[in-house]
Design a protein that fits this description.
The complex is a heterodimer of chains A (about 525) and B (about 300).
Chain A (H helix, E strand, L loop, with lengths): L16 E2 L14 H12 L1 H16 L3 H25 L5 H10 L1 H38 L4 H5 L3 H20 L6 H28 L21 H15 L3 H5 L10 H28 L17 H10 L3 H32 L18 H21 L3 H27 L8 H28 L10 E2 L2 E2 H23 L1 H4 L16
Antiparallel strand pairs in A: 2-3
Helix pairs in contact in A: 1-8, 1-11, 2-9, 2-13, 3-9, 3-11, 3-15, 3-16, 4-5, 4-15, 5-7, 5-13, 5-14, 5-15, 5-17, 7-13, 7-14, 8-11, 8-13, 9-15, 9-16, 12-13, 13-14, 15-16, 15-17, 16-17
Chain B lengths: L3 E5 L4 H17 L2 E9 L12 H20 L7 E8 L2 H11 L2 E6 L14 H7 L6 E3 L14 E6 L5 H15 L2 E6 L11 H22 L6 E5 L5 H7 L7 E4 L14 H9 L4 E3 L15
Parallel strand pairs in B: 1-2, 1-4, 2-3, 4-5, 6-7, 6-9, 7-8, 9-10
Antiparallel strand pairs in B: 5-10
Helix pairs in contact in B: 3-4, 7-8
Classes of the chains: A mainly alpha (about 525), B alpha/beta (about 300).
Chain lengths: ~525, ~300
């Protein structure tokens, strides 16, 4: 951890240990432009993201999904600028946790770390859930048994069992840091993008030929957020659309890892976001045109299909080629599972390292050099969470996505404010700083904070989202408050057990001084 | 000081075995010992995971800590140092380190799950014995618990094919440097065509063993003790179990004909030996470093 090395472990070294570097040295990164774009798209996993988020977004904003996608990108972009500044100034594998602790102190830092971990654990369980459904669908499509095998995915016992196996596989892959080649990633990402394009073109063809399910002519109003009519619906839609861009920021935060740190990250981020936005617009417009937003059958407003729309639409749109969509979603979830596992594990490792959690979390596997303990704990928590949710809540996928959007707003918002506060003495060093360390992250943070609060308040209504009611409240509210409440309880418990982190002894608050000459 | 030895170290039992064997070899040969940990550059070997320098820093610091700890457990009189290296794969990083330090030997431990005193090729060891240009020593599980300080004897398992020459040279060099005795074991019976009757095998084998013994004796200083033994047995495994082994001795084997020039390739006979061998094995290349590829006439 580069920011505050701990002063312990000062045992005299009997002989020199060199940290050196191979002939290649440290200077040059390994990631080129295309590589960075591929990593970006692979982390976003558009095939998985869309199938999970499209339905819930339609239920909030109807035909205006394209508009929401377009404006949902704005807070993401603003916050990502803040991320980039923080990452440049204090690169640390604890990311949000470390940065928030440096800016606002241990308590806020702890909660930001908790938010990140909770969000990634939610997405892990949702990813595995979606993957299981598509696994069964794929087998069904290949075996040519329309519906009978796919139906098995909805038996909670089979579903949970297969999901746990899936999680186990992903855990092993992450724990062992299984070597995969860049070539394989290129192939997977290209395949994913191609299938999505084919999928939407086929949907348009059906519309043109007049055999779409509920042909709806594309209108300009689909791109107009003001056409939604209700402010709260826009907010709910936005909090979902935050999720669809989640992961994009890695392209911006890869700096010294790239071959040309001056240019590659910016270009890669731009290229990635253009690809993603075009893809999202294409898919959402084509599916809206094909299926409409009716609440019956294949209509995107049908609650029975909203948690996983590709699952239901791929067959009617692509016919015999529908298995391609299943394959694309499966591969995209699988590779996204691995990259997703990394972030809670590394944050937990950093928290263990600085004494915010038990020191086992700081353990690095001596064989695979991964945060072994933290990886396994994340996997167990995600599995248990999914298993329980699957039994107590049939709308588990939908609710996890909505809660996830809220949690992302929570910790991204905190991180954005951390950026603003951390750089407070440097705001006016340059015109660039005014924008990148003050205005952009501040506006982004405010938007996310507002989304978080409004979503939280709205979700108290039992009709919110999937309409699942717990204790007379919306399930999303219960989940969100439960997660944050649990975080506070564990934080207080840790503060009693290991007070030194909470006294700021291991990770101190800081604000770099202005670089201007006085 | 005669050369350098690179140990592929991890903070595991297998790593401790490799370090123990490395120390034993270094002491015997009077070589410098380098413990090397090879970390994934930018924190991961998976192209699906975004590269992160900050995480690389974490594991680099951890790697240094492991090395410092390991070195306190090594014999203090050895000239030794620890190095963290970054590489796409552990094997690749070790070979690069071996070349950097001009190592005469790379030492690695057994894979997880090997029984006590037994060999088991892990991914790294397997990659090394099929591609390294530097001889590779395999430490059986439990080497770290042994109390042998120096190599008591060097055994070379010889065949008739090209490669045996290099093997013999290497065995002679190691024997000279370590001042121990050399035992030549003839693996001829397994190189003759199947169907040849046992009497003929014995004659051929005996003749071959005598021939090799003579060559080896010429190369050795007069005061070095050299002996030749024929391995009796129906199979390679059988023969190896019937041979007597001193605790801590090492056995040298050559590379298969499938090897690239000057590179290792574990042959099938050596792989069979490995299944039952209770002592460390060193695999040497088939052709000499710097030498032209010899005509493969046999």
């Amino acid at each position: 951890m580069s920011t505050t090395p701990r002063a312990t472990d000062s045992a005299p070294e009997p002989a020199p240990v060199t940290g050196g570097l191979s002939q290649k040295g440290l200077s040059a990164g390994t990631v080129g432009l295309i590589g960075a774009v591929v990593i970006g798209i692979s982390c976003i996993a558009p095939a998985y993201t869309l199938t999970a988020a499209l339905g819930p977004t339609v239920s909030e904003v109807g035909f205006q999904v394209p508009a929401i996608i377009l404006i949902g990108f704005i807070p993401m972009l603003l916050v990502a600028f803040g991320y980039r500044e923080l990452n440049r100034s204090m690169p640390d594998s604890g990311t949000s946790f470390t940065w928030a602790a440096r800016a606002f102190g241990p308590w806020v830092g702890w909660m930001a770390g908790w938010g990140l971990i909770a969000a990634t654990i939610l997405v892990l369980s949702n990813l595995a859930g979606i993957a299981v459904e598509f696994l069964f669908l794929l087998i069904d499509q290949i075996a040519g048994s329309p519906g009978t095998i796919a139906e098995l995915a909805f038996n909670p016992f089979i579903n949970v069992a297969v999901c746990l196996l899936f999680m186990l596989g992903a855990t092993l892959i992450s724990y062992r840091d299984m070597q995969t080649t860049q070539k394989l990633q290129y192939v997977l990402v290209t395949f994913q993008v191609l299938v999505l394009v084919i999928f939407s073109v086929a949907a348009f063809v059906h519309v043109a030929q007049g055999n779409a399910f509920d042909a709806s002519p594309v209108e300009l109003s689909w791109f107009n957020p003001f056409a939604v009519g209700s402010f709260t619906a826009v907010v709910a839609g936005l909090s979902l659309s935050i999720f669809i861009f989640w992961g994009w920021d890695v392209t911006l935060t890869m700096n010294e890892e790239t071959k040309n740190p001056e240019k590659t990250p910016g270009r890669a981020a731009t290229l990635t976001v253009i690809t993603i936005v075009v893809l999202y617009l294409l898919i959402s417009v084509s599916l809206l045109a094909f299926a409409g937003i009716g609440t019956e059958g294949l209509g995107l407003g049908n609650e029975d299909i909203q948690a996983n729309v590709f699952f239901f639409l791929s067959g009617p749109i692509l016919g015999p080629l529908a298995f391609l969509v299943s394959l694309a979603v499966l591969t995209s979830s699988a590779s996204s599972l691995q990259s997703t596992f990394v972030s809670p594990a590394r944050t937990l490792l950093a928290m263990g390292h600085y004494g915010a959690l038990p020191s086992q979390f700081a353990k690095v596997s001596p064989r695979f050099f991964t945060p072994g303990y933290a990886t396994i704990v994340s996997a167990i928590v995600a599995s248990v969470f999914y298993a329980i949710m699957r039994f107590v809540n049939e709308n588990v996928l939908w609710d996890t996505i909505t809660t996830l959007g809220m949690m992302i707003c929570f910790y991204y918002g905190l991180t954005a404010f951390a950026c603003v506060w951390y750089f407070r003495r440097q705001w006016f060093d340059s015109m660039r700083n005014i924008f990148f360390t003050l205005l952009f992250p501040l506006v982004g943070g405010i938007i996310l904070a507002a989304l978080f609060v409004i979503t939280l308040v709205e979700s108290m209504d039992p009709d919110y989202g999937s309409g699942t009611e717990w204790f007379g409240l919306g399930s999303v509210f219960v989940l969100g408050v439960g997660i944050i409440g649990l975080g506070i309880i564990i934080m207080i418990w840790q503060a009693i057990k290991r007070p030194s982190f909470f006294r700021g002894e291991t990770l101190s608050m800081d604000a770099p001084p202005s670089l201007r000459r006085r | 000081m005669s050369g350098a030895i690179v140990v592929g170290y991890t903070a595991t039992d297998a790593g401790a075995d490799a370090a123990a064997l490395g120390a034993r070899m270094a002491r015997s040969l009077g070589a410098r010992l380098h413990l090397v940990i090879v970390l994934p550059s930018e924190g991961t070997r998976s192209a699906a995971v975004p590269p992160e320098r900050a995480y690389e820093d974490v594991i680099r610091a951890q790697g240094k800590k492991w090395l410092a700890e390991a070195m306190t457990h090594l014999p203090q009189e050895l000239t030794r140092s620890g190095h963290v290296r970054l590489g796409e794969s552990f094997a690749e990083g070790l070979i690069a380190a071996g070349e950097e330090f001009g190592a005469r030997l790379i030492v690695v431990g057994a894979a997880e799950g090997a029984g006590f005193g037994r060999h088991r090729l892990g991914g790294v060891a397997s990659a090394l014995v099929h591609s390294s240009p530097i001889p590779v020593a395999l430490a059986p599980a439990g080497t770290a618990q042994e109390t042998v300080d120096v190599v008591p004897r060097i055994t070379a398992a010889l065949g008739t094919r090209t490669g045996a020459d290099v093997l013999l040279d290497e065995a002679v060099a190691m024997t000279t440097d370590s001042g121990t005795s050399l035992r030549l074991v003839s693996l001829v019976p397994f190189d003759v065509p199947p169907g040849l009757d046992t009497g003929a095998i014995r004659v051929v084998a005996g003749g071959h063993a005598d021939e090799v013994l003579a060559t080896a004796k010429n190369a050795l200083p007069d005061d070095v003790e050299v002996s030749a033994e024929q391995a009796p047995g129906d199979s390679v495994e059988d023969a190896v179990t019937h041979l007597s082994w001193l605790p801590g001795e090492v056995v040298l084997v050559g590379s298969s004909r499938l090897a690239q020039p000057r590179r290792l390739f574990l042959g099938s006979t050596a792989a069979k030996m490995l299944r039952v061998l209770p002592v460390p094995m060193i695999v040497v290349p088939r052709t000499r470093t710097g030498a032209q590829v010899e005509g493969d006439l046999t």
